[in-house]
Structure prediction request, 860 residues.
Amino acid sequence: MSDHRVLKASILALPIVCASVAVAPAQQPQAADAAKNLTPVTNETLRNPPAADWLMWRRTYDGYGYSPLDQINKDNVKNLKPAWTWSMDPGATETTPIVHDGVLFLNHYGDKIQALNAATGDLIWEYKRDLPAKLMAERTNQLTKRNMAFYGDNLYIATSDAHIVALDAKSGKVVFDHTVADWTKGWRYSGGPFIANGVLVQGMTGCGNATPGGCFITGHDVKTGAELWRVHTIAQPGDANFDTWNGIPLESRFGSSAWISGSYDPDQDLVFYGTGQPYPWIAEMNGLLPKKPGAKNTALYTDSTLAIEPKTGKVKWYRQHLETDTWDLDYAYERMLIDLPVGGQTRKALVTTGKLGIIEAIDRTNGEWLWHKETIPQNVVASIDPKTGEKTINQASVPHIGQTTVNCPADPGGRGWPATAYSPKTGILYMPLNEYCSNTTPTPLDPGQAYTGGGRAVFARTLVPNSDGNVGRVEAIKLADRSQVWTVRTRTPQTGAVLPTAGGVVFGGGWDRWFRAYDDTTGKLLWETRVNNALNSFPITYSVNGKQYVAVVAGNGSSHARSLATLTPEIKNPDGGSVLWVFALPN
Amino acid sequence: MRSGTTGAAATLLACLLCASASYAQTPFVPDEWKYGKRQDSATLHYCVDARDPDLPVARKIGQAIASALLLQPKEHVIGENVVGETLDSLYEIFLGTCDVYLGFKLIPDAYPEWMKVTRPYYRASYLFTAVEPGWRSLADLPKSQAIGSTMGTSADLRLIQYLQALSPAERWSRFPMSSDQAALKALTNGTIGVALVWGPALWALQRSDAGLAKIRQLSPNPLPAATADVGAAVLANESFLRNSIDRAIASLTGDGTIQAILDSDKFPATAVK
Prediction:
C-alpha cells in the first residue's frame, strides 16, 4: 500500500517539477541490476562456498564465521574507508547480511528485505511483509531477525508472525509463504533458517506460558515450505527423557527456545542446534525446584546440543550443558565443528560457549565430553568434572523467592547472541565477552492482564566485584591448548559479533560506536572508525569483481545491547538511526 | 569467584552494596518523537484490557473516574486476540493511546521507574478451588494430589514458600499453570485436585463456561487468605494526572460508587477504603 502511495505522489508532482526545472545536473547512473546474474546455490555450493560470498549465518556450515578473503590485511586495513552506507528502518538490527554473486540481501527490523548491489549499495528490489498491526505495535526485539538462507534461486526468511517465506532472489517475489505457528499465541521467530542437505531447518521461540509444551525445531521442504518433521525441545510423553521435569506435567512445561540458527556436518549428515532454558527462569516458579525425592529435574532438552538428521528429524544424540537452569544462561549459540588435538589424538570436536562464557568441547560424533575453558568471572558453576563435564552448581547463586541472590554473569550472558568466531588460519577462537553480575530478586510480576509473563524476577545488573570499570573484552583463545593468546579489555560492552579473516584481522565493535580491526595474533588495534550507532549485529566480508568489502549494521533498539548499556551510563547513543555500513580500501 | 562458598559469599556481600537500577531506562520505541502531546485535554483516555477478567467493571470504573474528573471518557480496549506483551511494550501504548490503563495489581518494586500505579480501587482474593464436594479447605486435599497454581502471582509465590517450609513428605505437589483458565481446566479434567486462581478470573470464567459451574471455593487453611489491591497505571511523569486520579478514586470510594459498581455485577471484590 505504501509503495502505491509513493508512486501516485510522484505522478501528481511531475508537471510542476517539469515546469520549474530547466536543467538537472548529470548524476551517476544506477548500477545495472546485479541480481540478473545470480546463479543457483546448490548443496555443493553450501559445502564449499565461494570466498567472495557470504551465503549463510556464519558463512560456512562449520559455524566458524571466518572469511578466507585477504585483500584487506594487517598492513592496509588502516586505510579502510566507507565505500557506501544504506539507511535501515529504525529498531533492533541484530542481523547478518547475505551476499551472493555481487548482491547483498538485508533484513530490516519489521521484516523488510532488500536486495542491494553489493558494490554500490543501489537498491534492486524490496519485499515488505505486511505484518499484523498488533504484532508491529508490540515493538519487541522479536521483530528483528538474525539470519537468512540462500538456496537454489531463493532467499529464505523466517518472519515475525511465525511463517517461513521463500523469495525469488532475482525479483523479490514470493515463491511460497508457509505458516508454521500462530503468532497470536506468542510464537515468534528471531533467528533465521539454514539449509542442510536440501532441507530448510528453523528453530522456534516465544514458547512462553501461553504455549505449554515448549519450543521446537522444524525441517521444511525448500520448494513448498511444507513441514517435514518437528523436534520438540522439551521432552514429550513417550520420550525416554519425559520424566526429567520433577514430575510436572507437559502442560506445566515451558521454554527451551531454539532461537539461534545451527550448524551442519555434511560428513555425518547431522545438524547441530542449541536450546535455551525453562520458562520462567526462576526454578522455584517453574516447578523444577525443590527437587522431589526420587525425581529427576534436569529438564531435558533445555540448554542442550541436539544432533539432528536433517532428512528425518531424528535426534541422533544430545548433550545437556546445564541442568535446571534458573538464571537464563542459555546454551543456544553457534556450534563450531573443529578437529582438535585432545589427549594425543585428533578428535572431531564441536565447540560451543553458552552465556556462562565457558568454552566447551564435545565429540561431535557422540556428544562425549572433551574439555572446557573458563573465560569471564562467573559464580554459578563451582566445578566441572574434567572427564564427564558434569557441573557442580554453587548453590548460593540459585535464586530464591523472598531473597536477593547474586549470579555472575547476569542474564544477558557473559557472551550473548553476538557470535564468537574461529580462524582456521590461527587456530584461535575470538570472543566478544562482557563481565558483570546480577542481583536477582524473584518477584511476582503479575501486574494485571496486560501480559501473561507469569512472574520472573528483578535483575539489577552490576559490575563484577572489585571491577576496574571495564565491562567488555575481546578474547583470543588458542583451542589446541586452550591458552589465552591475547585479550583486549574495554569500558564499552562488546555488543557485536566478531569477524576474523585470512588477511590477519579481526573485526568487531561495541556499544560505543567504534568499529575496530585487531591483529589476529597480537590483538593490536590496527584500525577503528566511529559509526552512527551501536554495533549490535554480525559483520561480514565479501568481494565483488575482485574488490573486498566489510559490511556491518549499526543501530539501537536491541534489548541485549540496551541491557548491557545500563552498566556504562556515560556512553550514550542516539535512539534512532540504523545503518548498514560498507567499508573498502581506496581504489 | 568460581572457587567455592567463601568466594561466593564475598561476592554476595559486595554486590548487594553496589546494585544499579535495572529499570532506569524508558523502553526503546522507534521514532518515539512521532508521539506528540494529546491536545484533547477535556478527555480522559482510559484503557481497559480485553484479557482482564474484570473488564465489565473496569469499564464502569474508568467512566466513573472520568466523570469524577469532569472529563469526557474515551475508552480504549487493549489486547484483543493477543496473548500478551512485555511491560516495555506498554510504554508505547501509553504514548499512543492511554492516559491511564486500568487493571494493575499493587506489587512493590514490580514496575519499571517510568510507570506508576494509582491508589487501588478494589481488593480481591486469590482462591483455592476444587470440584470435590466433600472438601472444605485446602487441608482436605490428599497429599497424593497436586495443587495447580497460576504461575508467578503473589499468592503462588506465597504457596511456594509455604510448601518449601514443609518436609518433602508433608508437601503437596505444585504444578505451575500458564493461566487461571488453564488451572481451572486442569481442575475439571482431574490433573490437579486444587487450583489456586485469581478470584475475578473464576468469576469471569464461570459466567462464560457452564462446565466450570461445579468449581467451589475452599478455605485457604492452613494458609492465610491472599489478596491483591488493583489500581491503574500511568506514566511516571504524569504526576498531576496520577494525583487527580487518586483523589477521584478516593472520592468514588467514599461515596460508595466503586462498591456499587462491584455489587451491580456481583464482582468478587471490595472497594479499598
